[in-house]
Amino acid sequence: MSKISSLVVFGATGTQGHPVVDAALRAGLSVRAVSRDVVKAEESLSSRAEVCEADLLEADSVRQAMAGMDAAFFYLPVMPQSAEAEAMLEHVIAAARAAGLQRLVFTTSAWCGEAMPPGPFVSGLRAASERVLNSGVEAVVLRPTLYLANLVWPHILREIRELGQLTYPPLDSGRRLNWTATEDQAKLAVAGLEADVAGEVFDIASPEPVTGPELCRMLAQVYRREVHYAPQTVADFAETLSHMAASAEVGRSVAALYEGIDRMPEDGPLIDTEALEQRFKVRLTPVSEWVEQRMGALLDLYGQKI
């Protein structure tokens, strides 16, 4: 494989894609940033990135976005078990083959490790991963745990500010798990373009597994007030998500993921982050460091204030 010098990033303005654009530019790559909203992309992304309009549901636009590029990063912005997800996968894989991509990086955007009980959402992510790995294009799959970026959902910020309570995630207070910074996912995605990892699936996360109350103590330092862990029930969380996504199906499907995590007999998901750092030759960000140094910047980026 010749050296990869260019990367196309789908969903480039979102909490997953934006860090990949930044990490790729820092690595000296030429970046084509794909978004359905060109104006937003031009306003929020570095001027060094080439902005391109495309939609994963439109095969021709996906093919044009990949033309002339060496590698691509993408995720599914819809439920993985849906017909839309199937179409998106088909378009990405066909375009990657047509462009002769040297590497395809896919993130499942949620944890679907072997310890997780099966269900439509988890099984959909596993099936999508298999499609990518068997696409005929060298590929790597990243399976993140819970995203730290979820902590800046508006209703979570409001509850912490006004009530001093963290209701997310809907998990037992004693469960210790690794969270994932999207900035760390981006580091791994970019490092995975050159690392000898093609054909593999990696459970990824940031260092420093914590319980809900331990995370609250970290957040208290940022908010300068006491923060208590008061997790929603899975049913209440499903209702909250249903309102956020304007879809009861989305609420039920995603909430089932958390129900599956809480059914695991031991702590977790727990990830060997030292092994990730050694394999990909990157430094990952401990959760306490992310909360202290990155949370405020992420809030500013997406127009929120503590």
TrEMBL record:
Superkingdom of origin organism: Bacteria
A Pfam family annotated for this UniProt entry: NmrA
InterPro entries in alphabetical order: Ergot_Alk_Oxidoreductase, NAD(P)-bd_dom_sf, NmrA-like
Name of the protein: NAD(P)H-binding protein
NmrA-like domain span: 6-271
